[in-house]
């Protein structure tokens, strides 16, 4: 969703600055997923740990629509989980997945996350293409490393 709210060079700059600030403060770890097979090694997605604190964090991933279903997100997230455990010494990772997002749910299942609860949340203004103010059911998934 974050990529759809970046609609200008200034918005891109603001987003990158915020990411850098969070990474430098140790609150996030962000990696780009690239297609190493292509001539340009172009970026096709991202994988991140965010809200890192006291041996736990949340994880998110995003992949370009034309690259979904090829295992990129699963492989990138698996590598990030290994890093989270071996380097950051994290024990618990959370995924917050919208109820209808079956692709992300399949990635969570492949990585042996367990769905632990569901909650309702209103869509924020910056979560395009969703309608701000609309309520969604979010499933919380958890993995213990």
Written overview of the protein:
By secondary structure, this protein is of the alpha+beta class. Helix content is 28%, strand content 35%. The protein contains three helices and six strands. The protein has helices spanning 9-24, 72-86, 102-110; strands spanning 29-34, 43-53, 56-63, 92-98, 114-122, 135-144. Strands 1-2-3-4-6-5 form a six-stranded mixed sheet, with helices on both faces. β1 (29-34) and β2 form a beta hairpin. The longest helix has 16 residues, at 9-24. It is globular and about 40 Å long. The model has no long low-confidence stretch (mean pLDDT 88).
User: How does the overall form come out from the CA principal axes?
Assistant: globular
Q: Widest sheet: strand order?
A: 1-2-3-4-6-5
Give the distance, in angstroms, between the N- and C-terminal Cα atoms. 27 Å
Q: Indicate the structural class.
A: alpha+beta
Indicate the mean pLDDT.
88
Describe the sheet with the most strands: 6 strands, mixed
The tally of beta strands, per DSSP, is 6
Helix content: 25-40%
What is the H/E order?
A: HEEEHEHEE
Strand content: 35-45%
- Unreliable residue runs: none
Rg from alpha-carbon coordinates: 15 Å
Determine the number of helices (DSSP H or I, runs of at least 4 residues).
3
Summarize it.
The chain is of the alpha+beta class and 145 residues long.
Secondary structure: elements and pairs:
Layout: H1 9-24, E1 29-34, E2 43-53, E3 56-63, H2 72-86, E4 92-98, H3 102-110, E5 114-122, E6 135-144
Parallel strand pairs: 3-4
Antiparallel strand pairs: 1-2, 2-3, 4-6, 5-6
């Amino acid at each position: 969703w974050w990529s759809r709210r970046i609609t200008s060079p200034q918005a891109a700059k603001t987003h990158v600055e915020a990411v850098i600030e969070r990474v430098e403060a140790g609150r996030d770890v962000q990696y780009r997923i690239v297609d190493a097979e292509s001539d340009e090694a172009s970026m096709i997605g991202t994988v991140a740990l965010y809200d890192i604190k006291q041996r736990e964090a949340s994880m998110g991933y995003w992949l370009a629509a034309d690259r979904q279903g090829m295992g990129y997100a699963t492989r990138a997230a698996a590598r990030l989980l290994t890093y989270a455990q071996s380097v950051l010494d994290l024990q618990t990772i959370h995924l917050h997945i919208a109820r209808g997002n079956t692709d992300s749910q399949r990635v969570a299942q492949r990585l042996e996350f367990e769905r632990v609860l569901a909650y309702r949340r209103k869509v924020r203004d910056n979560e395009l293409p969703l309608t701000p103010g609309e309520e969604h059911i979010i499933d919380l998934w958890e993995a213990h490393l």
